[in-house]
């Protein structure tokens, strides 16, 4: 299996070292090939908000950079790690630019079955909120998310501090490896079901063939399906799914 870590720091220090330690731990569990991708080594231009990727398709983006090279690495991976230091109480600029460049996936998720987690390095505090944000990103990409971890990297690093990081990385890697092996397509939670059904019902009414979101949903049969991928819903979720469709339809028509 292939696992790729995307590092949002130009320094090969705490975030990089923790990611490498995590990946090496995974290798000790089984046959894992890994790659570390330092985002600062790639040409990523700042999103201009032109909406071309949303409306016409990502191939119409006017920016010509390394976005597609990085997307290809995600596609060819069984597991994905987004690792970032906390800068100004959020992900680094490198990581945020990367996420903005792949934002169309949040409308048209396609990484189902892939395991995802995050590693966040903080100085004193702020990292837990960044972990929550990256957890949300992983879910919106369609991945099977293992809750990310936050490590504290005060300098100079003490022996006690390093041992705590080692424990966190050890625990996180075991959980991630287990998720990686399953490669599951889980039954959606009520929240995920609601987001899918209301999004698709709204798109069906308010968009048309001129919009890539619409044609993508149509091509994948999502306007008629229970969820993004084949899944068996219990009677309650089937009923509540139809309710979400009706609610979204009424809201769209009232607008």
Q: How is this fold's topology laid out?
A:
Blueprint: E1 2-7, H1 14-29, E2 33-38, H2 52-55, H3 67-75, E3 79-85, H4 93-101, H5 104-107, E4 115-122, H6 127-141, E5 144-145, E6 149-152, H7 159-182, H8 190-206, H9 212-219, H10 235-254
Parallel strand pairs: 1-2, 1-3, 3-4, 4-5, 4-6
- How large, in whole angstroms, is the Cα Rg? 20 Å
Which H/E pattern describes the elements?
EHEHHEHHEHEEHHHH
Helix tally?
A: 10
Q: Quick one: overall form? A: globular
Mean pLDDT, to the nearest integer, reads 95
Low-confidence stretches: none
Structure in a nutshell:
The chain is α/β, with parallel strands linked by helices. 49% of the residues lie in helices and 13% in strands.
Structure description:
With 255 residues, the protein is an alpha/beta fold. The protein has ten helices and six strands; from the N terminus they run E-H-E-H-H-E-H-H-E-H-E-E-H-H-H-H. Strands 1, 2, 3, 4, 5 and 6 form a six-stranded parallel beta sheet that branches. Helix 6 (127-141) links the parallel strand 4 and strand 5 (144-145).
Tag the structure with descriptive keywords.
single chain; 255 residues; alpha/beta; six-stranded parallel beta sheet; 13% strand
